[in-house]
Amino acid sequence: MDAIKMIEERRSVRKFKDMKVDRELMKEIISVSRYAPSWGNFQVARYTCVDDEATIKRLSTEGVNGFVYNVDTLKNAKGVLVLSYVKGKSGKLDKDEYVTSKDQDWEVFDAGLACQTFCLAAHEKGIGTTIMGVIDDEKISEIVSLPEEETVAALIVYGHPDESPVKTPRMAVEEISRFI
Ligand SMILES: Cc1cc2nc3c(=O)[nH]c(=O)nc-3n(C[C@H](O)[C@H](O)[C@H](O)COP(=O)(O)O)c2cc1C
After folding, report:
1. In angstroms, rounded to a whole number, what is the distance separating the alpha carbons of residues 132 and 48?
2. Ligand 1 atom with minimal separation from the 11 CA
3. Cα 68 to middle of ligand 1, angstroms
4. Residue 45 forms part of a structural domain
5. Residue 101 CB–ligand 1 contact under 6 Å
6. How much of the chain, in percent, has pLDDT values that exceed 70?
């Protein structure tokens, strides 16, 4: 698929068919997602794919702060990715101290790049996704038994799309750009 077309066409999908996504296909998508750039190429993003019904139910009832929109989306979801990252690496060079004013914020930045790369790779493979930021990261860590050195960046619900969402509006280039 043409990259620009793919970027422009990807939409958040919140309705999915009643079938799980094959785990081998998920591995292929994650394999592509590995090519997301990262601070110092530390590759701190981690991918925990949940396709177990009971665990998805727990994520929906305990992991999204009761946010109705997300609870509804997760109700019929067949797959949820817990996108986490390894803490304390991005932003540091050789010494064990952060070298920019953003301190450790670069790790969240890396996670965001991994999210978008994952969503685009999934879209190319015919899998719909929605990134969820209204979440309870500590509760989610507990539910999926995340390793101590990681923290949750976002949930990404994924599955075989059962809707074709309309195009969401974007600001004009003139509004968001300047040239010097
Ligand atoms: C960091 C982040 C957090 C988001 N959180 C949520 C969320 O909690 N629930 C949800 O339904 N959509 C969420 N979204 C999806 C946005 O609403 C969506 O990307 C935006 O409206 C643009 O629509 P599009 O993805 O179809 O282009 C989030 C997106 C991002 C990037």
Report:
1. 15
2. 26
3. 14
4. yes
5. no
6. 99
Q: Which residue of 12, 82, 155 sits with most ligand 1 atoms within 8 Å of its CB, as the best mutation to test the pocket?
A: 12
164 pocket-lining for ligand 1 (C-beta < 6 Å): no
Distance from C-alpha of 78 to C-alpha of 75, rounded to nearest angstrom: 9
76-121 tens-digit pLDDT: 999 999 999 999 999 998 778 999 999 999 999 999 999 999 999 9
Report the C-alpha gap between 67 and 141 in whole angstroms. Answer: 18
Residue range(s) defining the domain that contains residue 36: 18-176
Please check the confidence at residue 1 and state whether its pLDDT lies above 90.
no
- Does residue 130 lie within any of the structural domains? yes
- Is 95 contained in some domain? yes
- Nearest Cα to Cα of residue 138 among 148, 128, 127, 125: 148
pLDDT in tens, 117-147: 999 999 999 999 999 999 999 999 999 999 9
Q: How many domains does the chain have?
A: 1
Residue 6 lies in a domain: no
Q: Which residue has the tokens 């995340």?
A: 146
- Looking at residue 158, which CATH number applies to its domain? 3.40.109.10
Q: Which atom of ligand 1 is nearest to the CA of 165?
A: 26
